[in-house]
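Dear support,

We are seeing what looks like truncated structure output for some complexes. This example has two components. We would appreciate it if you could run it in full and send us the complete token output so we can diff it against ours.
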Amino acid sequence: MSNCPDRKRGFTMSESLAVVALAAALLTPTGRLFVDATREVARSARLARQAQTSAVLAARWRLSLRDSRPETWRVEENAFVCEGARIEAAEGRLLFRRGDACVPVALPPGMDAAFAIERPEGLADCAVLSLRPRDTGRPDPGGRIRIVACGREDDR
Amino acid sequence: MRGKTSDKAGFTLLELIAAAGFLAVLTASFYGSCRYLRKVEQAYAAEALALHVMENVVARCAAEPARGAAVVRDILEAELRQSPLGADPRIASACRADAAYADLTIEGGGARALARVRVPLAAGAAGGADAREGAP
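Here is the complete output from our reference environment:
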């Protein structure tokens, strides 16, 4: 590299390229890991919010149906009707109506609600509130939440 | 950087090796942290789902006045099957019962309990002392 004998030589182009390639090889998976880690943290935060909101929803859902008889249950479009109460799924929340009173409870962010009635043979009927992620085009198998409530069983 | 007698034009090989080693240590520790974070996140998600399953089981058991161990176990299995955890082959349910109580457990990988609950059984209910699944 140099004519001067005591001069420390720098690296050649090939040595520099090798170092750059090594650094790139190390940094590429690190970058991918960083993206994954960011995504996992975001998912954790979303799950924590879902857990909090769904706990409130579950308590209100079970309380609303606690004293109702399963024979009176019916599912309408975006609504669940039982004795004296009506639960409606609106945009981003559920409306718990009883008489003139209406209690809105927020749905977990990014989720929709659906109602169903299950009548398993030999067991008590149960009303199911299903929370599902809105169709975002991304698979999220862990995002489904099923909340079961049972009513008053007088004749069992 | 550049003197009269020693003209340093770049890093020495030792410096580069040290830098690459430092980078490798940083990458390895970051990789380990990410793996740990992912593991914790997955465990948290599984526990949250297992708690939902157990809450449903308790709600349904409360509506069964004549609940024996067989009924409780059937409810647990049905709820687990219908939850997202049901698709995971590592997740299993266990029901250990005596005459008075049924201990219900949802186990993750390595027999780690994700959620556990004790349900009182109805006195004299059929199958009250059933302990078929997960018996020690």
